[in-house]
Q: What sequence folds into this?
């Protein structure tokens, strides 16, 4: 499974075992479950947020819309 992200902090934090945020710990847990229970390799790939990918733009819009709700 290839997962694209524009968050360098997620990628850098996933490589470091110390001082991980709760988001990175959650991501690591999900990757662990996917790999060990479903035998699926997970690859995290950084992309520039400036990249004009229609699905990326839709995802960004949904995140912004969802994060504005209480």
A:
């Amino acid at each position: 499974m290839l997962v694209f992200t524009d968050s360098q902090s997620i990628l850098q934090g996933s490589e470091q075992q110390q001082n991980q945020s709760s988001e990175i710990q959650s991501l690591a847990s999900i990757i662990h479950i996917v790999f060990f229970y479903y035998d699926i390799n997970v690859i995290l790939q950084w992309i520039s947020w400036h990249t004009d990918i229609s699905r990326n733009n839709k995802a960004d819009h949904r995140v912004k819309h969802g994060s504005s709700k209480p």
